[in-house]
Amino acid sequence: MTTSELVTPSFTSNIHKFSVQQYCLMHESGVFAVGDRHELINGEIREMSPIGIKHAVCVARTTRYFQIKLGDRAFVWTQNPIILNDYSQPQPDLAILKWRDDFYASALPTPDDILLIIEVADSTIAYDRDVKSPLYAANGIPEMWLFDVNQQIIEGYAQPSPSGYKRMQRYEQGDSLSINAFPEVIFNWESLF
Fold this sequence. Notes:
By secondary structure, the protein is an alpha+beta fold. Helix content is 23%, strand content 31%. The protein has a single domain, classed as tt1808, chain A. The strands form three sheets. A six-stranded mixed β-sheet has the order 3-4-5-6-7-8. A two-stranded antiparallel sheet has the order 1-2. β7 (153-161) and β8 form a beta hairpin. The model has no long low-confidence stretch (mean pLDDT 91).
């Protein structure tokens, strides 16, 4: 047998993408252990990193500050799932949502409900920037803030498009920022870090 007669086997990778509905059924049927932290990203179930002290404190401080500054104008949804599309149910650290009197009891928030997503990162900065940010932009989330707790920098992303956010602004000590939905409400970097 010559090398030209050898047949190279064809390997195809059949990857199953889970839908949000399937993912929810897995949760309901107890596939995941209590306390497991997962999220569904583009049909893939991803294990979430443990929450460290710097991350936890930043989320707690930011949640409290947003609740005080926004009051009843918006709803602060902390470390809870949102539905972006049929194959993505991430759990951002904070989502600033349009106010609803039912506290979203009838259905999880979708892109139409979301004013701002905040991701807080210590060990997951590349994942949040390279995977989650483009996903949020492609699904029309108007704005995302990425808190880097190690460098103490906030990256603000706006103008979503199918290929990612078109505008990025970096905020450091001494800077102030505001949500596009509430430009009159000013947040100081020092209050968030």
